[in-house]
Prior knowledge:
The complex is a heterodimer of chains A (about 375) and B (about 260).
Chain A: H1 18-32, H2 37-63, H3 77-80, H4 88-100, H5 108-126, H6 133-153, H7 169-195, H8 200-215, H9 218-232, H10 241-266, H11 270-278, H12 283-298, H13 300-313, H14 325-333, H15 343-373
Helix pairs in contact in A: 4-7, 4-14, 5-6, 7-8, 7-10, 7-13, 7-14, 8-10, 9-10, 10-12, 10-13, 11-12, 13-15, 14-15
Chain B: E1 17-28, E2 31-42, E3 46-50, H1 57-64, E4 72-77, E5 80-81, H2 86-95, E6 96-99, H3 111-121, H4 127-140, H5 156-168, E7 174-178, H6 186-201, E8 205-209, H7 213-219, E9 222-227, E10 230-235, H8 237-242, H9 247-256
Parallel strand pairs in B: 3-8, 3-9, 6-7, 7-8
Antiparallel strand pairs in B: 1-2, 1-4, 4-5, 9-10
Bound molecules: adenosine-5'-triphosphate (ATP) and magnesium ion (MG).
Amino acid sequence: MVNPNLxxxxxxxxxxxxxxxxxxxxTWARANLFNSWxxxxxxxxxxxxxxxxxxxxLKFLLIDAVWDGASRVDCLADRVGRDVGACWPxxxxxxxxxxxxxxxxxxxxxxxxxxxxxxGLLVPLLMPSxxxxxxxxxxxxxxxxxxxxxxxxxGMLGLEHVETRLWGGLLVTxxxxxxxxxGSLPLGILLALGRRSEMPAVRGVSIIxxxxxxxxxxxxxxxxxxxxxxxxxxxxxxxxxxxxxMIGVMLFAAAYMAEVVRGGLQAIPRAQYEAAQALGxxxxxxxxxxxxxxxxxxVIPGIxxxxxxxxxDTTLVLIVAIFDLLGQLRAAFSDPNWAAPTTVAxxxxxxxxxxxxxxxxxxxxxxxxxxxxNPADR
Amino acid sequence: xxxxxxSPVIRTTRNAxxxxxxxxxKWFGEFHALDGVDLKVMRGERVVVCGPSGSGKSTMIRxxxxxxxxxxxxxxxxxxxxxxxxxxxxEVRREVGMVFQSxxxxxxxxxxxxxxxxxxxxxxxxRREAEALAMQYLARVYIPEQAAKYPGQLSGGQQQRVxxxxxxxxxxxxxxxxxxxSALDPEMVKEVLDTMVELxxxxxxxxxxxxxxGFARQVANRVVFMDFGQIVESAEPEEFFSHPKxxxxxxxxxxxxx
Lengths: 378, 258
Ligand SMILES: Nc1ncnc2c1ncn2[C@@H]1O[C@H](COP(=O)(O)OP(=O)(O)OP(=O)(O)O)[C@@H](O)[C@H]1O
Ligand SMILES: [Mg+2]
């Protein structure tokens, strides 16, 4: 199987007569998919694999799926009178819970507004062609966290206070993941710089920090943050449980990020440092303007890999009784009103699709960005 | 070796000291890289430094802008003594431009951005002004049309000329060159040397590590020969090439002049 783009004849959008085009597709297939015995066998084996995996999935998710209903009985094979696939009414009924947890229904607009604001600021930030990047970045990284905090937590400006105990579902998943992602990168960069510093104290602290957090499993971190930390803190000191977990996840991710960034820093030749120094750039300007832009570009794949891992690791908060998307899903399964043979599979399929969309989105964006940043391709 | 005609008369105007090294020692671990170097360079003077590989030429020139720290002796640049004080080092680096042997433009920035980076961030010059200045210097090294390109898209000679323009954009009082042409293909050497000759004509104070003897003949006020971390001989070019005093100098000259 060869990249179709390698053969320009096979790829001609528009303007080609259909007869000729069909002819070309077959020649392309013959040239690329069946040009040798081995290739032909591989092509057939792949087609077979796609068929055996995709068809049952398609059948379950779409063809046999139940689309309308009010309770479990609508998803029972006996009642419907045929094979039953995904039970989508279950998701429909539980959607508010899966998205917001127990966030009060009348206040859920605040979550939506926060999400909309976040998207409205993030999307233009991610599109390099749009202007006002500095202002945009200040709004997103500086102003938005405050606005988001006020909106979600409330208790001021006439907004009713909503305890984080009530938060759940995708809301919690995103809050933990976004703070983790946004916080871990700058922290990781600082740690990586610290680890390469010439000052022994800074280097020592960075190394200890990084190795400590890389040495313990995330589950331990979460347990520690939730059950042990309160014992160490002086009486009357209580950190919000969600905040504790957010900080734990962020520090954990930062340690990994630091090592990725360090790899990039090591790849920059010494001549670049010296050229910057000879121009009179001080340490921070040299790093910020010359070294880091190159180093970070080199390690985009590693950084995104970490982001994706972090996003999926947030599901572990379930074990410290914080109900993220998966947690809410588990809770929803126990509702007897929806206990049907396919509800569990439906629920996990739904969660899988959501996680896939986020992670695949990050991955594609990074790939696109990487190509764009490569001057040779411009 | 490039061919430059007979040396034009370039006068040294001001009589102040630009760079003074006295009794400078430098060790790399056990290795004695600089062994008591004394060198005095006046404003507007052009000194060419030569010597065998490993003799400490790079180390000496890098001590002048604090890329290496000397361990004994005194380095005074434009009246500022170089010590461990980072402020002092930055102060000196602002006034001293350097062009290296390796092609080390910043690959993620365009040619123009390479040139405006330091004026904007170190000299706090407004962007417009910095760009105008950069275009002026790029024109002076004959590549204004390459301003929007990335370094990777230029030839080695062009990159080295941009490196010169980049250093000049800081309006340095002194320019250091560490074998600026030895990483280049032969056909590109001349274009870089020509640029340096013009710079010399404008009266720039220059310290050039180079084995381009034609260049030395044409622009140098003085040629300095180094070996084993010491300055062995220092003389005017005519004297240096026709009547070298020391055996080591003679040997070296016979090797590079064939
Ligand atoms: N960072 C360093 N650590 C250890 N030794 C070094 C270092 N830099 C230079 N040296 C040693 O110091 C000696 C002088 O080096 P230097 O680069 O000054 O020589 P050079 O005269 O510039 O030679 P070349 O003509 O090859 O550039 C060499 O023997 C080199 O191995
Ligand atoms: Mg050298």
